[in-house]
Amino acid sequence: MPIHYVEGDLLDNEHSANAFALAANPEGVMNTQLAVQFRGRYPRLYETYRDACADDPPRFQLGDALLWQGSGVSVFKLGVYVNPYLTLADNDTIAQAFHEMRRLADEYSIERIAMPPVAGGIGNLNWNHARASLEAAFRDFAGELFVYMKQKAPERDLEAIQASIEENRGQQRNQRSDRGDHSSRSRRSSNRSSNRRSDRGESRSEGRSEGRSEGRSEGRSEGRSEERGEQARSEQTRSESSGDSSNRRRRRSRRGRGRGNKSDQNEKQPTQTAQPAGDGSPGRSSDSGSKDSGGDQRRSRRNRRGRGRRSGGRPKNNNEGGNNSGGSSGGGGSGGQQSDG
Q1: What is the pTM of this model?
Q2: I want to staple 25 with a disulfide (CB 3.0 to 4.6 A). Which of 80, 81, 109, 152 is the partner?
Q3: How far apart, in whole angstroms, are the C-alpha atoms of residue 310 and residue 320?
Q4: 106 and 47 in one domain?
């Protein structure tokens, strides 16, 4: 029988197979553990499979078999899953995929094929139906088919997985450290900028406070100087007003004194005068002498009043009038003497 059920690592290829067979879905997604390993080893395989699913119309569908040939190795993609969630197709579709793989193997002269239990499902619950379809398709196959029922992960894969895990951790640590350095640098720069801003703000506040204090001091000094000027002006106006009032008082006092002197002089002057006769005859009567002297007195009083009003001072006594009055009085005296005689 050309079908062999073995245990081991499929990727290790212990039986020197020149082709591999994998289960696939028509959406171009390789998400199983074994498919991810093949995708990492053969990137071109994934590209070809994805392009075949994306074509319009698609070149890969349920029940089809896609053959990819690389350098010294070939891979069959069997359409037995309906979607990437590992939903199996019906048994007829699975049998169709196995017959299509047999046809391509005969066409390309592929003699040794290695594969996992394709279409066995989760826990190989559907493996009995899938096995019957596989044996029916490869009943008289000229080559050999190796089915790896139990996968054994060799130590090298575990070491590689552990190395990749450590590498990823190291990269994450480096990224974190880089982020921490970047964040610390950004914090330092932000602190520096904030310090600069605070310094600028302090300098501005100091300048403003100095300007305000200077403005206030200048305003106060100006206000004080203005107050002093106003006080000086008010004192000057007060002194001027007091000087005017004192001058007015002086003028009034002078006017009062002049009037008093005039009244005194009028009281001192005699009421009757007599003039002697020029020819040795007895003098004129006292009535005529008093009339003449009264006219002279009126004239002198008028003159004195006018002078007092002009000068604003005290009126002066008229000596000439006194002499004349004395003379007249003397004459009157003589005349009186004569009249008495």
Answers
A1: 0.47
A2: 81
A3: 21
A4: yes
